[in-house]
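I am still getting used to backbone structure tokens and would like to learn alongside you. Please make up or recall a protein chain and show it to me in full. Would you write everything just below, so we can both look at the same thing?
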Amino acid sequence: QVQLVESGGGLVQPGGSLSLSCAASGSISRFYAMGWYRQAPGKERELVAQIYSDRTTDYADSVKGRFTISRDNAKIKVYLQMNNLKPEDTAVYYCNVLLIRGLPRYWGQGTQVTVSS
């Protein structure tokens, strides 16, 4: 069993910054991919950023150049630094981990990010 604990998020003005973190615990010592999806009201869940075991990364086009995903070398933990936030970044952000390619992902409970003046 794998548990994901998210922290960070909150309310920020447009142009501001926030950081999210996600720590995994349980039966996990390594992963294939770990990162963040988000879901805005009335929209489907979409990939924001993820980092792979080889440290390569994927980003949604809408966040490239503004968001940075990183990982802790010693722990199963990832971070998402979000800069120059826009109102359209408002969503619930979900941490997820994929232990082995092709198997279901584990999901966190989500954390709200609201960008508003």
The CA atoms of residues 15 and 111 lie 19 Å apart.
